[in-house]
Write a structure and sequence with these properties.
The chain is α+β, with helices and mostly antiparallel strands and 196 residues long. The chain contains six helices and ten strands, in the order H-H-E-H-E-H-E-E-H-H-E-E-E-E-E-E. The two termini are 23 Å apart.
Length: 196
């Protein structure tokens, strides 16, 4: 049902989805070749494929987001120099993940800290992946993710150990990124589980 609400064809082939990602990256001036991309086995309920090209940077995607809608970040530094740990790294090559097709982050992970999620062996979205998902979703629908809650990017860490948090603010009309302590939990802060 979420696929129809979000104006996505639930019958798209993986080839069609990869062609859409390639078109988005071309629009951003990024040459990609997803030939031979290993796509992980899909799990039930994980219907959104995110294809990440080799070499793409967090700050690069953030800058593209600024061109599409208002954004803010808690630091004046380049995000790639501040976010120093990521569970998946495009420097190692192209990769793909699946996640749930939802505007709000996973209800299943409310009131769970990043530390608790990691202890359970749950793979969480990285800051880069969240920006890519948010940008593509906005281009598809004209709407934003995380309008009521915030995504805890439990697959990433700031150099001081904090966990990136991304949400949309109706007051500022923009998407913001700041951080949260890895041991803290909140019902308004939720991870997005991924399959990789």
């Amino acid at each position: 049902m979420d696929l129809f609400v979000n104006r996505r064809n639930p019958f798209e082939s993986r080839g069609e989805v990869l062609a859409q990602w390639s078109a988005l990256y071309r629009e951003l001036g990024i040459a990609v070749d997803f030939t031979g991309l290993k796509i992980p086995a899909k799990r039930r309920g994980f219907d959104r494929l995110i294809a990440v090209p080799q070499g793409i940077k967090i700050q690069q995607v953030y800058n593209v987001c600024i061109g599409a809608f208002p954004c803010w970040k808690w630091t004046n530094e380049d995000l790639d120099s501040v976010v120093t740990e990521n569970d998946r790294n495009p420097a190692d090559g192209n990769y793909a993940i699946w996640l749930r097709e939802r505007v709000e982050a996973d209800e299943e992970w409310k009131n769970k800290s990043a530390d608790q999620i990691c202890e359970r062996g749950i793979l969480g979205i990285t800051l880069l992946e969240r920006f890519l998902y948010g940008l593509k979703f906005f281009k598809e629908t004209g709407r934003h993710l995380d309008v009521k809650k915030a995504t805890l990017c439990s697959g990433s860490r700031y150099r001081g150990g904090g966990v990136p948090r991304v949400s949309f603010s109706k007051f500022s009309g923009g998407v913001g990124v700041d951080w949260y302590d890895p041991g803290d939990a909140s019902g308004a802060l939720r991870a997005r589980e991924v399959v990789s």
